[in-house]
Amino acid sequence: MKEQERNHGARKLIAAISFYDLGQRKPSSKELVEMVKRFNYEAGAAFLARLNVCLSLAIASGDENILADVSEKLTASVLSPPRLQEVVSAFGDKLYRTAVVLNRVQMLVGIKLLALYAPREDGSTLETDADRYQMGELALAINSFYGPDLGEPNWPLDDVSAQLAASAELNNPELVLNGLVRTRCLLGPVLDDYLGHLKGQVLPPPFERIFTLLNGLNFRDFLDLTLYLHMEHSRMLDELMSTDEMAYVDVREPKRYVSGEKLKSWAEPMAIRLEDAPSFVRGSEADLAFFFDVTMFRRFPLWRSGNYRYFLIDPIFMAERLSSYGFYWTVVNGLVDDHLRSQFQSLWGELVQEYVRQLLAESFSAEPGSFLRRPTYCDNGSEVFDCAVVLGDGLIPIEIKGSVLPIADRYAAKAGPFYQGISEKFGSGPGAAVEQLLRNIEHIFSAEHPRECIQIPSGRIRRILPIIIVHEPIFRFGGLARTLATEFTTGLKRLVKKIRPPVEPFYIYPFQVLTVEELERLQPYIQKRDFDLFDCVRSKAKEDPDYQLGLWEFITTRFLPDNGIKPRANEKMIGRFKWLTKAQSWRVYRGDYYDHSLAERRKATGYAIICARPVGGDKLLWDEVISYKEYPTAGEAHKAIRAVADSEFPKQPISADWFECRVVDEFGVTIEEPT
Fold first, then answer.
1. Where are the beta strands (DSSP E) in 548-605?
2. What is the 3-state secondary structure (H, E, C) of 372-421?
3. pLDDT surpassing 50 at residue 7
4. Residue 469 needs a FRET pair 20 to 30 A away by CA distance; which of 131, 178, 236, 411 works?
């Protein structure tokens, strides 16, 4: 699948062209504000929003040629011919590939500036080319705030690294495929299993019921409609590029398969009125963090106009709701009670841990007994590591963190607070991942008072490969692991004096970090035993000692090609995704989200459809019915159903004991076999 292939290798970093690059002075903050005041707020914000939607859809396509083409056309629409020629001359072939004038973070920051300073009644409405060229100059001005002025020294490298980590994700969105499957797993079988283990204990609050009461949609309904609108938007790029229109839904004009009431229930949790936007802007242009913080748009990717129209501002942030990270924030932001919010955060962290344990158990299933789900100490039953893997004389202790980086730290744009936030959540802070790994390695291998864990044969362990697996997506971008690795190495130097002297050579491999998505993509290589993880990390330590690359990026861009290993897709996730999206399409098509009492969707065609539901096998798909094949008459469908069930369904790329099939009409009503 195209999306599965996207971002398989190195993360894409794009330079934003500024006045500095053209040999011109950087405007002051005061001059920047004056430029903003030229534009009418509503017209300027709508203009930038439309550009951002087009650019975001091009990024989401995963096609670099489409992205370059869209960037070129949009840039030509906002730069005067002399300015455009100046940019082309300066950047040549790099332009629109690795260097751009327009980018997501810049346009979102532009909207924030307009919200703060643009006049509501007066100002340019961008109806002429000259007006639009002024917007292009504003774009270059905003880009200039991401670096020093002429004659100034370069910014500290650590600060730049923190800024790159915060902004790189805007050009490298998570895969919808992985995100949707993971979210549905967390809300389905993982949650069910977790609650099953709590029998007789205090259960967490019924968050789905609370969500439904607040929003009028349950979890699956919300994800279904998000996917439906995401698929619609992904097909709109050409239309939006050829017009000056914005993408929107009007709940008075319901979609063919979704009622206005359902659309409104879906949109409200992530929409604000344009006039209310200033109250959600954090900080100002006087603070560098202002130019990186896109929290407002992540939380509200839609604008509501009046009571009926919802305009799309950022399709990538809207689609992020399908991922476990975006869905987490959707629920957290919707809970008004701090205690409930804290309980949900705790529950989500537990579910992420259980999900990762399931991935790892499947990954090492070919090595019976190697995966330790929750190893515990013999003395008091407390947990040693979140999980671990024992392979011969090798131990892989693993800590799993479902935490997310606080917004203030994420967009700090300064090394100090950014890396301090990383350290407190994932490093050497109390209860953080690095601290837990070091503490428990010391307990297990202590020279004086070792603690016994019956699952870990400490006496035969000669190699240790410490890994943390994180839910926070910002760790997808290289270099962040270096901070945690430095803290681990510092702690290890103290630890070496406390662990028992080995009888044979004893080696602790360099510390590694994986995100949950990276583990999902690594899983098929482990299952097929394509390589030894210890050998891989040894190679990484030799070739990338400074952690310029994350572990997954090193594997895909260097280790696999150097060792002649062909790329693998996670076929299980792809099969699940295909089935889930077919089931979602069928629910939408048959009218689950349409109110037939308000209007007729369309006339019935009289076609008969064979539907199928997997029985047994993958718990995620037990309640997922798909429309498999359509026939002109019920008689033909019933005649074909046995052959379809016996010969075609066993070929489906999902796990099931068998498939329950029946014939229905296009609204899902069962059609009996004609006599």
1. none
2. ECCCECCCCCCECCCEEEEECCEEEEEEEECCCCCHHHHCCCCHHHHHHH
3. no
4. 411
Q: Where are the alpha helices (DSSP H) in 250-301?
A: 260-267, 295-299
- How confident is the model over 196-202, as a mean pLDDT? 89
pTM score, whole prediction: 0.93
pLDDT tens digit sequence for 233-248: 999 999 999 988 888 8
How far apart, in whole angstroms, are the C-alpha atoms of residue 669 and residue 675?
18
Q: Number of helices (H) and strands (E) in the chain: give both, helices first.
A: 28, 16
- 8 Å CB contact between 68 and 278: no
Sign of CA dihedral 598, 601, 603, 605: negative
Gap between the Cα atoms of 43 and 144, Å rounded: 24
In the predicted structure, residue 494 carries a pLDDT above the cut 90: no
Rounded distance between C-alpha atoms, residue 41 and residue 168, angstroms: 28
Tokens coding 327:
């869905």
The pairing of strands 512-515 and 507-508 is unpaired
Q: Compute the distance between CA of residue 285 and CA of residue 291 in angstroms, rounded to an integer.
A: 7
- Say how far apart CA 518 and CA 528 lie, in whole Å: 16
C-alpha dihedral over 76, 79, 82, 87, to 10 degrees? -80
> Can you give 330-369 as a three-state secondary structure string?
HHHHHCCCHHHHHHHHHHHHHHHHHHHHHHHHHHCCCCCC
Quick: pLDDT tens for 534-579: 999 999 999 999 888 889 999 999 999 999 999 999 999 999 999 9
What CA–CA distance (Å, rounded) separates 616 from 622?
7
Q: What is the DSSP string of 598-659?
A: T---------EEEEEEEESS-GGGTT--EEEEEESSHHHHHHHHHHIIIIIGGGSSS--SEE
Please answer whether residues 377 and 452 qualify as being in contact, where contact means their C-beta atoms are separated by less than 8 angstroms: yes
Spatial distance between the Cα atoms of 293 and 289, rounded to a whole number of angstroms: 6
Strand order in the sheet with 626-631: 626-631, 608-615, 658-664
Element (H, E) at 513: strand 512-515
With CA atoms as reference, report the closest residue to 57 among 291, 247, 263. Answer: 247
Instruction: Give the pLDDT band (50/70/90) at residue 232.
Output: very high
Q: Which two tokens stand for residue 674?
A: 């004609």
Q: Single out the residue of 251, 252, 255 nearest to residue 264, CA to CA.
A: 251
CA–CA separation, 377 and 383 (whole Å): 6
Q: Tens digit of pLDDT for each residue in 345-387?
A: 999 999 999 999 999 999 999 999 999 999 999 999 999 999 9
Per-residue pLDDT averaged across 135-141, rounded? 97
* Long-range own/partner contacts, residues 126-133 (CB < 8 A, 24 or more apart): 126/39, 126/40, 126/43, 126/44, 126/47, 129/80, 132/47, 132/77, 132/78, 133/78, 133/79, 133/80, 133/83
pLDDT band at residue 8 under the 50/70/90 scheme: very low
CA distance 289 to 417: 11
Q: Per-residue pLDDT tens for 634-667?
A: 999 998 988 887 777 767 789 988 889 999 998 8
In this prediction, residues 117-142 reach a mean pLDDT of 96
Residue (of 252, 354, 258, 257) closest to 305 by Cα position: 252
Q: From the CA atom positions of the chain, what is the Rg in Å?
A: 27
pLDDT surpassing 70 at residue 478? no
Give the model confidence (pLDDT) of 375-431 as tens digits.
999 999 999 999 999 999 999 999 999 988 888 899 999 999 999 999 999 999 999
**Number of Cβ within a 10 Å radius of residue 297:** 25
Phi, psi torsion values for 372, nearest 5 degrees: -110, 110
